[in-house]
Write a structure and sequence with these properties.
The protein is mostly beta strands. About 5% of the residues lie in helices and about 45% in strands. It is built from four helices and 33 strands. Bound molecules: beta-L-arabinofuranose.
C-alpha cells in the first residue's frame, strides 16, 4: 500500500490530503457559493443555495469513493451513479466502463489546496494537471504556480446539497463478495474491489466497525501485484479466518499469462487488517488440481471443536478439512457437495446444532443472481435444500443480490447478512456495492426470506 501520495509539480511540491468518503459537495475557494456540479453531463462551477432546485442540488452532490484506479486516490460518483472524469481536458460525468483508461480518467489524487481545509485534485493519469474552473466550467489544466491557478483549483469539501434518501451501501463505492465476520468483538468486512471490466481488480481492502454502520477503512491488506507471485489479477472473494492469534485470508487469483485458470491462495497476518503475506508462495488449490468447476470463492468454517473446513468452487462445490496449520489439507479427502442450483459463493455457519450451507445461484451479471441454502447435520451434510432466501427487489430498484456472508452479533441470536447488489443506481455485474441487512429465523430453524433494503 502506498503510505501517502506526493505529487511533485514543476517547481512546487504538493502535500497529499485525505478526503472523507461519503456524500459531499465541493465549494469553490475563490467563488464561495459556487459548487462543482454537472449539467448536461459537463462539469461546471455554478451557484447553489438553499433556494436552488432539487435537480441543481443533486447535480452538485458527489459521493467520494475509493479511487477507481488506485486506493491511494479518490473517485467522485454523481447521484445518477456516473463518475466525474476528464475527457479532452474537460470534466464531465460518464458511466464506469471498467476499462483502465476510464478508471484512470475518473481518479483524482487529493493534495492540499490554497487555503487551510481546502483540497486540490490532481489527475491520476496526468499528475501535472488539476481540476480547475475557468469561465465557470471545469477543466483539467496544467498546473501553474500562480496564486490565481491555485485558488481556481482549490475546493472546500462541504456538506452534501442533496439530502440522503436511503442508507446507501454499507461502505461507499464499488465493493462485492463481502465477507463479514467478527474478531475480538469487532466486525470486519473483506470485499472484492469492484468496478473493473472482467472483474480484473488486483487488491483487497479491510474495513472494521463496532456497529455495522460506521466503518473504518484500513487500506489495502493484500495486493496481488507486489504480494502474490503466482497471481496478477482476479483478486476475488476474500474470506478471513482466525486461529491461535493469526489471521488467514483465503482468496482467488488469476495469472496474466501461462496458466490462466483461477486458483486459490492463502495469506497470513498477525492482525485482522493485515498486511497479509502469501503463506505458501504458491496456490493452496491449483486451477488444474480438481476436474470440473473453477477454483474460486473460498471460505472457512470453524466448528465448535476447533476443526476448520475449507469450502470453495464455481460450478462444482467442494469441501475438505483443513489441517491445523490452516494452509494445507489432504487432497484425497476433498468431497464434492454441489447442491442443486449451485453456481458459486459457498458460505457455511452453524446455529443450534444445525449446519447451514448457503450459496449463490445464476450469474453475477444477472439481476436474478440470488442466495439459496440447505441445512444439514454435519459440515459435510447431508444437505436438504430449503430454497431461495435472498433475491432481487425490483420495486426498490435492487438487483443481483448475492455472494453473501453471515455473522451473529455476539451473545445474541441476532444475525446479519452482507451481500452485494448491482450498485444503485446504474450498476451492473461489474459495478456492484455491498449491503448489510438482518437475517431472521423461523421457530423451526428455517431462514425467513431476507428483505434487501436501500
Ligand atoms: O467478484 C468476482 C466474482 O463474481 C466472484 O468470485 C463471484 O462469486 C462473483 O460474485
Amino acid at each position: 500500500m502506498a503510505a501517502g501520495l506526493l505529487v511533485v509539480l514543476s517547481g512546487s511540491a504538493a502535500q497529499a490530503a485525505t478526503l472523507p468518503v461519503g456524500a459531499r459537495s465541493l465549494e469553490s475557494v475563490n467563488h464561495p457559493g459556487r459548487y462543482v456540479r454537472h449539467l448536461d453531463y459537463v462539469g461546471r462551477l455554478d451557484p447553489v443555495s438553499s433556494g436552488s432546485t432539487t435537480q441543481t442540488k443533486l447535480d452538485a452532490t458527489f459521493t467520494v469513493v475509493n479511487g477507481l484506479a488506485s486506493p491511494a486516490c479518490y473517485s467522485f460518483q454523481a447521484k445518477n451513479g456516473q463518475f466525474l472524469r476528464h475527457r479532452d481536458w474537460r470534466l464531465r460525468i460518464d458511466a464506469n466502463s471498467g476499462d483502465p483508461i476510464f478508471r484512470a480518467d475518473a481518479t483524482f489524487c487529493a493534495v492540499e489546496g490554497s487555503v487551510a481545509g481546502s483540497v486540490s485534485l490532481a489527475s491520476y493519469n496526468n499528475p501535472g494537471r488539476r481540476i480547475r474552473h475557468r469561465d465557470f466550467t471545469l477543466w483539467l489544466d496544467a498546473y501553474q504556480d500562480t496564486a490565481a491557478f491555485r485558488t481556481d483549483s482549490s475546493f472546500r469539501i462541504a456538506a452534501p446539497w442533496a439530502p440522503k434518501t436511503n442508507r446507501g451501501p454499507a461502505i461507499p463505492g464499488l465493493f462485492a463478495d463481502p465477507h463479514l465476520t467478527m474478531f475480538n468483538g469487532r466486525y470486519y468486512l473483506y470485499p472484492t474491489t469492484d468496478g473493473y471490466a472482467s472483474w480484473s481488480g488486483t487488491y483487497y481492502k479491510a474495513f472494521s466497525s463496532t456497529d455495522l454502520v460506521n466503518w473504518t477503512d484500513h487500506g489495502v491488506s493484500l495486493d496481488h501485484g507486489p504480494d502474490v507471485s503466482w497471481a496478477d489479477n482476479s483478486a476475488w472473494a476474500p474470506a478471513v479466518a482466525a486461529r491461535n492469534g493469526r489471521y488467514y485470508l483465503y482468496f482467488s487469483g488469476g495469472a496474466a499469462s501461462g496458466n490462466t485458470a483461477k486458483q486459490l491462495g492463502v495469506a497470513v497476518a498477525d492482525s485482522p487488517t493485515g498486511p497479509f503475506r502469501d503463506a505458501l508462495g504458491r496456490p493452496l488449490v491449483r486451477g488444474d488440481q480438481f476436474s470440473g468447476g473453477q477454483a474460486i470463492d473460498s471460505m472457512v468454517f470453524s466448528d465448535d471443536d476447533g476443526q476448520s473446513y475449507l469450502y470453495w468452487g464455481q460450478g462444482v462445490a467442494r469441501a475438505v478439512r483443513l489441517n491445523t496449520d490452516m494452509v494445507s489439507f489432504d487432497p484425497a479427502q476433498v468431497r464434492t457437495i454441489t447442491p442443486p442450483g449451485f453456481n458459486e459463493a459457498l458460505f457455511v455457519f452453524k446455529r443450534n446444532s444445525t449446519y447451514y450451507l448457503m450459496w449463490s445461484e445464476n450469474d453475477t451479471r444477472s439481476e436474478d443472481y440470488r442466495v439459496a441454502y440447505a441445512t444439514g447435520t454435519s459440515p459435510f451434510g447431508p444437505w436438504t435444500k430449503r430454497g431461495v432466501v435472498l433475491q432481487k427487489r425490483l420495486e426498490a430498484g435492487i438487483k443481483g443480490t448475492g455472494h453473501h456472508s453471515v455473522v451473529r452479533a455476539p451473545g445474541t441470536d441476532t444475525w446479519y447478512v452482507a451481500y452485494h447488489r448491482f450498485a444503485v443506481p446504474a450498476g451492473n455485474g461489474t459495478n456492484r456495492e455491498t449491503a448489510i441487512d438482518r437475517m431472521e429465523f423461523n421457530s423451526d430453524g428455517t431462514i425467513r426470506p431476507i428483505v434487501p433494503t436501500l
